[in-house]
# Entry
Amino acid sequence: MSFVYKNKLTVSDWVNYILLVIIAVICLFPFIYVLSVSFTDPDSYIPLKFYLFPENWSLAAYEYILSTASFINSLLSTTFITVVGTILNLVFTLTMAYALTKRKVPGIKFIMGCVIFTLVFSAGIVPNYLLVKELGLLNSLWALILPNLTNAWSLIVVKSFIDNLPAELQEAAIMDGCNELGVFFRIILPLSMPVIAAFTLFFAVAHWNQYFQALVYLTDSDKWTLQVLVKSLVIDSETIGAASRGAVAGDSTQPPSETIRMASIILSMLPILVVYPFLQKHFAKGVMLGSVKG
# Structure
């Protein structure tokens, strides 16, 4: 005998589903509009017209924006910040979190208290700016990396994750002759791949979206991050003119400024949209395992 369970949808379920679909469509419309305008042929583009799908497809806006020196410089700056910053974030976060798990280290409670203190209180914009200035990092890409090597929330989550790992494995490794570095590289890191994957994406997205600090610390437009350049393209028509002066020689045809803006927005989002699906599955596992024990 087999039993079949039939899950009937109630009226409230239908209302919830319909509302969620409406909200999803509303959220997708701006993205669809940006994507459609960016692929619209410059000759058929009509300002202030809503494009659900381009009437005539064209890559002219993408070819133009990718040929400008300003966009290439911003792309290189953002890529450097993201790659180097993410690697250093992982190194400092994992090593310090592992050290915080060693309760026998003198002063470890005081250090942990300082970490928790920074989780509640921060110095603020002006002290951070003065610190970066005194370190000689103004107008340097390192100003976006070195002050953000780690943060209290990441340390606490990763520390909790390492605390949940079987202590017997570390003890067995020490009995086999491993020192602390050997335990870290041979035991802790291989078992910490879920939390490493999760925080790799956390750190990478944060660095890729650097905007406010780049706006404050970088005065040279050649060092702007993508987010600062896109902001300038969207609200400042003079930036598009400056970008056009950096286009490849012989390219005298400039697409409409609106298609250039939309193409730059899509290009700035594309890397994260490509990487996210591959690491998204590690989010829940990595973060939840690190949040069970405090």
